[in-house]
Design brief:
The structure holds 2 protein chains of 2 kinds.
Chain A (H helix, E strand, L loop, with lengths): L2 H13 L1 H11 L3 H19 L8 H15 L28 H14 L3 H11 L4 H8 L3 H20 L1
Chain B lengths: L2 H10 L9 H8 L6 H28 L5 H30 L7 H41 L9 H50 L1
Helix pairs in contact in B: 3-4, 4-5, 5-6
The chains are: A mainly alpha, B mainly alpha.
Chain lengths: ~160, ~210
């Protein structure tokens, strides 16, 4: 393995690790599934890294690879509502921390997102990451008009879910 | 909860993750992918290894035969089978390599994967059925040539009838078994891809 290339890749992963973690939390149910998905996304990013020519934004490229992996992943377990967002990919140490209001809200957010369909999850993730509809189209390949319609439906769905 | 609040929560949600280090990265990169296409690629290598093993075994059998018309027949069969199998493996490998583009737009990648996966399943199904039929016909032909000198205990037409009946039953069993097997292997994944693509196109069609 080329160490220079590896270092460059590691830097890239470290800079955008949050993006991968978010996708794992949205698409995988438990700690084991999250770990599997995280590893799979990193493997796919590494494989695609060689062909990355800076023609698109780094985050667009990462989102494409990560979502392509998450949507076509063969899951060990059926996706269910993610209970604790702090279920770290490394171990469960974080779970020992006191559950505060912020965590409760996070749980509520991820629990609400987990009730959406696979495509809606992808759309809402990009939306919450402040991506423009142009960027979202670039990642998903769905035209902007359709994305707007979907987003309105998702907002309504989330409003209903989080109201309860 | 308001969307603004959701966005704030979302922005803070990745803070809890522990950064990955070089050692961990190496460990991850050395692991085998569990993606359906990676599994099919590994299975193809296994299939090739078995194919080569069987081929070597048949070469060994043929090389031990005495010179006769059957020997020439077997050599031709071996050559034809080798060529056909190589074409099959080459074509399947090409399909698998073109099957996905992970850095492409999600929708186009899913479309690509679905199209190639359907092609692959059709190829599997056709090749499997043709293989069983050809093997049976060739086995029948060899049996017919080798038993010609023996005295016939049953009438010729009855022999042909039995041969056709057994062949038809075998073919039907293989046909339905292949359908069930391929559906079990790829059916769910194909359906999943179709559902996602349908959802992506939903509003565009309305």
């Amino acid at each position: 393995m080329n160490s220079d290339k590896e270092k460059k890749f590691l830097r890239l992963i470290s800079e955008h690790e949050g993006l991968i973690h978010k996708i794992c939390h949205v698409y995988a149910a438990d700690a084991l599934a999250k770990q599997d998905l995280f590893q799979e996304i990193v493997i796919q990013l590494w494989k695609s890294f060689e062909n990355f020519r800076n023609e698109s934004k780094i985050s667009t490229w990462m989102y494409r690879v990560a979502l392509n992996t998450a949507l076509t992943e063969k899951r060990r377990n059926k996706t269910k509502v993610s209970i604790s967002f702090l279920g770290s990919l490394k171990d469960d140490k974080a779970q020992e921390s006191i559950v505060d209001a912020h965590e409760e809200n996070l749980n509520l957010l991820f629990s609400a997102i987990s009730k959406l369909t696979e495509v809606e999850k992808a759309v809402v993730m990009l939306y919450l990451d402040d991506k423009s509809y142009e960027d979202m189209e670039d990642v998903l390949g769905i035209n902007q008009g359709t994305l707007r319609v979907k987003m309105n439906r998702i907002k309504e769905k989330l409003r209903q879910i989080t109201k309860v | 909860m308001e969307l603004r609040k959701l966005k704030e929560l979302w922005d803070g949600s990745s803070n809890s993750s522990i950064p990955i280090n070089e050692k961990e990265l190496n460990q991850i990169l050395n692991k085998r992918s569990r993606r359906p296409i990676a599994i099919i690629k590994r299975n193809l290598k296994l299939e090739m290894a078995f194919g080569i093993l069987f081929y070597c075994f048949f070469i060994w059998i043929v090389s031990n035969q005495a010179v006769s018309i059957i020997l020439y027949f077997d050599i031709i069969l071996l050559v034809v089978a080798g060529i056909l199998y190589s074409i099959y493996v080459f074509y399947k490998n090409q399909l698998l390599n073109k099957m996905e583009c992970m850095s492409c737009e999600v929708k186009s990648n899913l479309n690509l994967q679905l199209g190639f996966l359907e092609k692959l399943v059709k190829l599997y199904f056709k090749v499997g059925n043709i293989f069983v039929l050809l093997t049976y016909l060739i086995a029948g032909a060899i049996g017919y040539i080798t038993s010609e000198s023996e005295t016939d205990s049953i009438p010729h037409y009855l022999e042909i009838m039995i041969f056709i009946t057994i062949g038809a039953v075998l073919f039907l069993i293989n046909y339905y078994f292949s359908r069930w097997y391929l559906f079990t292997l790829y059916g769910k994944h194909i359906q999943k891809l179709k559902n996602i693509l349908y959802e992506m196109d939903e509003s565009e069609k309305k």
